[in-house]
Amino acid sequence: MKVFIPHNHRRCQVCSQNFFSDSPICFEAVSEHETLTKHEAVAKYKTKAKIVPTDKAEGYDGMMQGGIVTTLHDSAMLHCLFQNDIKAMTVSLASRFHHQIAIGQELEVRAHWVKSRRNIHFLESKITQNGRLCSSAQSQFMSVSSYQT
């Protein structure tokens, strides 16, 4: 299932343009059901997307540029919040680089919600290529009210 994008985010230069590859990135929702102690069913969503980065995302020869990798994490985690009907803005984001990401080879980015406290949401994401963890990130997002979005 494709992730719903709020109307005021549809012109985002990262999400709606060919920022990473030859076509706009398309995030899918991955549902995960958990049972709470009071036997209430709760659905948590994860998001994922697969892209083949092009030279638009290149830093050093043949490698994806680090700032663009971090942007991909940010986009994935934001779309995870969209899937959970939360409109928010990035407060902080820390990314780690484990292995280089090659240009021209498919990668997968996955993001998932960790927890929320008041109006702060904690998320994590991972980018893999050929089954190898290349980058991971943790972030905090702050909910924004409907008049701000």
Automatic annotation (TrEMBL):
Q: Which Gene3D superfamilies match?
A: Hotdog Thioesterase
Q: Which organism is it from?
A: Vibrio kanaloae
InterPro entries given for it?
HotDog_dom_sf, Thioestr_dom
Say which domain of life the source belongs to: Bacteria
| Molecular function via GO | thiolester hydrolase activity
Q: Which SUPFAM superfamilies match?
A: Thioesterase/thiol ester dehydrase-isomerase
Which is a Pfam family this sequence falls into? Answer: 4HBT
Domain Thioesterase: from-to ranges: 63-130
What is the protein named?
PaaI family thioesterase
